Amino acid sequence: MARGLNKAMLIGHLGTDPEMRVTPSGQSVVNFTLATNESFKDSGGNLQERTEWHRIVAWGKLAEICNQYLKKGRQVYVEGRLQTRSWEDNKTGEKKYTTEIICSDMQMLGSGRDQGGQGYDNSTSYQQPASRKQSFGNNNPEESAPGSETEKDDLPF
Amino acid sequence: MARGLNKAMLIGHLGTDPEMRVTPSGQSVVNFTLATNESFKDSGGNLQERTEWHRIVAWGKLAEICNQYLKKGRQVYVEGRLQTRSWEDNKTGEKKYTTEIICSDMQMLGSGRDQGGQGYDNSTSYQQPASRKQSFGNNNPEESAPGSETEKDDLPF
Amino acid sequence: MARGLNKAMLIGHLGTDPEMRVTPSGQSVVNFTLATNESFKDSGGNLQERTEWHRIVAWGKLAEICNQYLKKGRQVYVEGRLQTRSWEDNKTGEKKYTTEIICSDMQMLGSGRDQGGQGYDNSTSYQQPASRKQSFGNNNPEESAPGSETEKDDLPF
Amino acid sequence: MARGLNKAMLIGHLGTDPEMRVTPSGQSVVNFTLATNESFKDSGGNLQERTEWHRIVAWGKLAEICNQYLKKGRQVYVEGRLQTRSWEDNKTGEKKYTTEIICSDMQMLGSGRDQGGQGYDNSTSYQQPASRKQSFGNNNPEESAPGSETEKDDLPF
DNA sequence: TTTT
DNA sequence: TTTT
């Protein structure tokens, strides 16, 4: 359960193809960068553009889906939580920090035609289970009875 | 899975105590209203206040927690999806519509001392599982190994 | 200023062309509907689809931009606040309620090629000023010095 | 105007009193850190707690309000955009990166009684103007109109 | 009434 | 460095 809210919501384009790896314990992780663009006027009244780059991390099945369907240039919606991790620079021994968005929901936007798409279903989205967050039963039990196989399928399409 | 985003996020105070019922199939549902307040200046420059009322619905364990811990006046954060349902007015036979927020995440805010609180843990929050939404594995499998008992407990405190 | 949070965030497709009108006081208003789609498995394990329809309202320049660039079928991101207004049914005299999203930010998504697009810049977004909300100076004054003409232009493209 | 969405939403407690400074050009800036807490069960099924720390930056009037009313320990809602800036470490000459949330909306939560509060209006919130974002007129001019009946009903149900 |  |  969260005690406090920690949420990031982004719409942007992938700057790189997703990079997939598998942890020693056998879990899938994917990393990619996402650019969000913003225009503003500077103090001289000239229209300027700023691009902000975000580091996205996804785990498990969501990682696999990102790896399979996302490509550099693809427009996506990403929702997740902010996480800053520290690591030691091998060369200097210094402690460094990186802030990442741990993705819990991803949606492909647009038609995918000019996005390097090759026949995927571009309007599908994917959401992580809330199992880590101490769940409290079904959201709407009229739709999904106890014992249904809802979560046992691997892929929804 | 969502195809598209449908999200509401509210911070406000309960206008009523939660009302709990159990469906014929044995599922818990809770309803309450939430007031969000906004101030603005009218065209005369005078500060005006507007209160917007929202109808909140929660299912399952989240319903039970709302029922147990929330009281009229309590300040909460509510996240959910918008849903408009129609029903027939018994007296006139007319079709009517109500828009509700189907709650998937709730957090109690503040210290609870002057909120009618009687000893509850005011900083706990609760989130629905994403089981209805075709999940894809654990959010961060390093923390919650396959086969762990994460979701088998009833209450997180 | 808001006292409380009242926010809706949607990604969906327009179900209708925007309908524009001008109020007696000369203000532009636009209305359109937005569909958000969600798939889920029913208790029998079958994939079901649900479409939720939302009523979107935009005012002022944002209304004009919606009117000019949006078309039925267009995929957009919409952010706004929930507002329920009541009106009297002319035929029955009954009081009725409608919940709408008062749009404060809109973005066109995708490439626009197969969306009825006719040469507009599809990646532009538009955001309402916060003038009604008791503002407190510039967000980042290094970028927009006092006295700059930031808000005097009508159209950003 | 944004082209793409870049939004962070946080509810947490200040880890430090806000630190205010004034830029050479005379603009106010405030910095503080915000802790968001999350509980989860580890793979052994034990309840663990994680605290995530966020660096918040506010400009202009919003900076002044944060400086005046916020204190270490205060619970707040913060909304803003993610921004990563780089700087050179004086000692090592290395390039380093920091991700901050440029605050555009802030709300004090709770009653403020045990939060070091000294008579401020604890339920006030503050929102930046959207002047940098190329605004398009009034959000809802019907509300600013003298004598409109829009807001006179109390309860919609 | 949208989209895939 | 916060909070419960």
UniProtKB/TrEMBL annotation, chains A, B, C, D:
Region (Disordered): 108-157
Keywords on record: DNA-binding
Keyword DNA-binding listed: yes
Domain of life assignment: Bacteria
GO annotation (BP), single: DNA replication
PROSITE patterns: SSB (PS50935)
Gene Ontology cellular component terms for the protein in this record: nucleoid
Biased composition, class Polar residues, residue ranges: 120-142
SUPFAM superfamilies documented for this protein: Nucleic acid-binding proteins
The name this protein goes by in its record: Single-stranded DNA-binding protein
Annotated source species: Chlorobium phaeobacteroides (strain BS1)
